[in-house]
Amino acid sequence: MRVGIMGGTFDPIHNGHLIAAERARIGAGLDEVWLMPANVPPHKPRAPKATADQRWDMVCLAAEGNPFFRPTDIEIGKGGVSYSIDTIKLLRSLHPDAEFAYIIGADMVQYLPNWHRIDEITQLIRFIGLARPGYELDMSNLPSSISSCVTIVPMLQVEISSTSIREERRIGGSVRYLVPEAVRAYMEVNHLYES
Ligand code: ATP
Ligand code: MG
Question: Which residues form the signal peptide (predicted)?
Fold first, then answer.
């Protein structure tokens, strides 16, 4: 079984994530995509605004309706800072028959050289890279040991970020059609990102 791992802070999950996950599934011929919220993301300067439980709930709501999507709480369940090297080793030991690839947007492709223990990661897993507005998908500036592990698949430019959703919520604007309706309703009921 070929599984794409779409990791993120998902604070909150939005349609850009879901479109990227679906494009990766089609473009790379994946059997499933697992949506995996980080517990404490290593790359972010600030802690997530929503709790891990709330981010998990929203990921579960967003995965509904796509039979190929599955939420996984492997990083939240493990706790602490979510380093990909640890997650990959855990996934491989729990699912020895699966072949895993990481699905990442263009910002993360450019950031790969900074990933904790990237030289070990590239020995264990491949990446599926997708376009994102504002970021180059040109990999000529990356070391070949990294760029050779990335497969680019077709993606449309989706100008949605969790940052822009949080900001829109903060100013009382509308996030309809930027996130799944169930996620929008969850944010509303739980007063998420209102300040
Ligand atoms: P934030 O603004 O808080 O950083 P984000 O929208 O970047 O949130 P993350 O949870 O940081 O979302 O990203 C998780 C993964 O999804 C990353 O690999 C990122 O590149 C990818 N991603 C997020 N939004 C898009 C998008 N609109 N198009 C393509 N990839 C995306
Ligand atoms: Mg981000």
Answer: none
For 41, phi then psi, to 5°, come to -70, 135
Residue 45, number of CB atoms within 10 A of its CB:
5
End-to-end CA distance of the chain: 43
Pure H helices in the chain: 15-28, 52-63, 74-78, 84-94, 106-111, 118-124, 144-147, 162-170, 181-189
Task: Give me the CATH code for the 2-159 domain, please.
Answer: 3.40.50.620
Determine the distance separating the centroid of ligand 1 and the alpha carbon of 108, expressed in angstroms. 8
> Of the ligands numbered here, which is closest to the C-alpha atom of 55?
1
Report the predicted TM-score, pTM, of the whole model to 2 decimal places: 0.98
ipTM: 0.99
Domain ranges of the chain: 2-159
pLDDT in tens, 101-119: 999 999 999 999 999 999 9
- Length of the chain equals 195
Ligand 1 binding site (Cβ under 6 Å of any ligand atom): 8-11, 16-17, 20, 104-105, 107-108, 130, 132, 158, 160-163
- Write b or e for each residue in 108-123: b if 16 or more Cβ atoms lie within 10 A of its Cβ, otherwise e: bbbebeebeebeebbe
Kindly give the distance from the C-alpha atom of residue 162 to the centroid of ligand 1, in angstroms, as a whole number.
7
